[in-house]
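A favour, since you know our structure tokens better than I do. Could you add the entry underneath, on a fresh line?
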Amino acid sequence: MKLAILSRNAGLYSTSRLREAARERGHDVSVVDYLRCYMDITARKPRVLYKGELVKPDAVIPRIGATYTFYGTAVVRQFEMADVFCLNGSDSISRSRDKLRSMQILSRAGVGLPTTSFAHATQDINGILEVVGGAPVVVKLLEGTQGLGVVLAETKKAAESVIGAFRQLDANILVQEFVKEAGGADIRAFVVGGKVAAAMRRQGAAGEFRSNLHRGGSAEMIKLTPKERATAVRAAKSMGLNVAGVDMLQSSEGPLVLEVNSSPGLEGIESASGVDIADLIVEYIEDNSVG
């Protein structure tokens, strides 16, 4: 089978592991920088070209960076038009990248979420804080990734200042309740084909409420409860994602989903769990693609 990994950097851990796993299973695999792709949008003959050559794989593994979601999903959509199997579809990637839209979809699906508020006018700050139960609150930029653009406001005055500052910059934000009992930790459940392949508990560095490994957090393997496992699977399914990293908080109310990632990194989860996630992903493609 011919596989194409859409990635800006062939040297990234996740990209190289997927390429390695595909080759070990006997596939012809190439890494394609999706920003260098250009498209022939023609009726009945949609094409994707890369450095002057036609790209026509049997299946595509999108690894689309958050900065280039618009163009990256356009490339994925072009492959879909050409009837190429895409591990995660363009619409699913777009849904997961829009934090507000994804929270609304998860809410409709009955997935547990931290109490969250969204508004436009700074005059409504008091109402926003009332919705989420008052300070402390977590303020999130809709466009932020890997813990960037996430601020913990511990007092009402601090929350008003942070929200007001972001809105003066015309930045769209979400305001969420601060789940204190999580203790600066969260769970990343890695879902492949409607099943949790592995899970890890990420603990934030000392004095840091964000648990992102990119920000100095640590990770260890964890066995999920049946409810946590079911929540992760439902969250991925509601987004329409075949492969997803579902981030959850453990709370007194049960698991609360923070985010569903359409291009989850493999390094942290493989290191913590010892599970060969890349191999499971390629196996899923083999079982589900037409090629």
